[in-house]
């Protein structure tokens, strides 16, 4: 029996990085997956990879800063597969590194619109879809180890992710009585396009992060996806309201 056998899964940020790794993993573990992201070419590539491996996947273009688009993407999952069981809210954007007093207001607003409001919009739509179709299910949000401490290089990003932790806990308390579990993962240094963009503006970033990580290496996106898959599975049936660090010990 595979980890997610028979589940219907919705994944945001599924065109690359952790989201793409998760979509592929969820399909290998038996889920039928609806991929959502802004870039259709990336979505098509991942969808075709899943299908080539014998999995079931479809995709929808979705900007997490667009409320109607977020709701429509979740509704599309139900249209294609008939219900929603599990959701992985992974999509996010990064800010330009630097102290908070030099960050343009428009960029702060965009980070919050995608990384916080986008998660809130998705969760609200997902809870409604799970309640109306499957009846019970699970949601996992992608936070960040950077939300668990002061974050001088990415202050807006860290603040939005810390707010996601709070939303996760509040949702777990609210929807637990209905059988809907809500958790978050807090990845550490992971080799994604996002962290490479950060490194381009912060030379030596990988050396600093690896030195602060007891396992002395960065994570691969697949390793982060494994944690999300477990939390979404029935094997985590008594886990809700947690923010699980997947950081190589960086915050130990």
Overview in brief:
The chain has a single domain (8-244), classed as Rossmann fold (3-Layer(aba) Sandwich), CATH 3.40.50.
Describe the 3D structure.
It is built from 8 helices and 7 strands. It is of the alpha/beta class. It has a single domain (8-244), classed as NAD(P)-binding Rossmann-like Domain (Rossmann fold, 3-Layer(aba) Sandwich), CATH 3.40.50.720. Strands 3-2-1-4-5-6-7 form a 7-stranded parallel β-sheet, sandwiched between helices. Helix 1 (17-28) packs parallel to helix 2 and helix 4 (105-132) packs parallel to helix 5. The mean pLDDT is 97.
Looking at the overall shape, the CATH architecture is 3-Layer(aba) Sandwich
Number of helices: 8
Summed up, the domain count is 1
CATH-defined topology: Rossmann fold
Instruction: Report the C-alpha radius of gyration, rounded.
Output: 17 Å
Percent of sequence in beta strands: 15-25%
Number of strands: 7
Overall mean pLDDT stands at 97
Provide the helix percentage.
Answer: 40-55%
CATH superfamily: NAD(P)-binding Rossmann-like Domain
């Amino acid at each position: 029996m595979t980890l997610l056998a028979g589940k219907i899964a919705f994944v945001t940020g599924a065109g690359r990085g952790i989201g793409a790794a998760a979509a592929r993993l969820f399909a290998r573990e038996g889920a039928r997956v609806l991929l959502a992201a802004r870039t259709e070419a990336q979505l098509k590539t991942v969808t075709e990879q899943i299908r080539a491996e014998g999995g079931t996947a479809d995709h929808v273009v979705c900007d997490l800063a667009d409320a109607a688009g977020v709701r429509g993407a979740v509704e599309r999952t139900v249209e294609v597969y008939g219900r929603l069981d599990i959701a992985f809210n992974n999509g996010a954007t990064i800010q330009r590194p630097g102290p908070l007093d030099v960050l343009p207001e428009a960029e702060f607003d965009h980070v919050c619109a995608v990384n916080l409001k986008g998660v809130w919009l998705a969760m609200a739509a997902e809870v409604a879809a799970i309640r109306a179709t499957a009846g019970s299910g699970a949601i996992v949000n992608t936070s960040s180890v950077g939300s668990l401490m002061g974050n001088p290089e990415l202050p807006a990003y860290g603040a939005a992710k810390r707010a996601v932790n709070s939303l996760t806990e509040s949702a777990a308390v609210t929807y637990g009585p209905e059988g809907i579990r809500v958790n978050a993962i807090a990845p550490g240094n992971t080799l994604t396009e996002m962290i490479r963009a950060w490194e381009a503006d912060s030379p030596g970033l990988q050396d600093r992060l690896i030195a602060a990580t007891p396992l002395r290496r960065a994570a691969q996106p697949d390793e982060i996806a494994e944690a999300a898959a477990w939390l979404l599975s029935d094997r985590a049936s008594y886990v809700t309201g947690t923010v699980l660090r997947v950081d190589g010990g960086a915050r130990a």
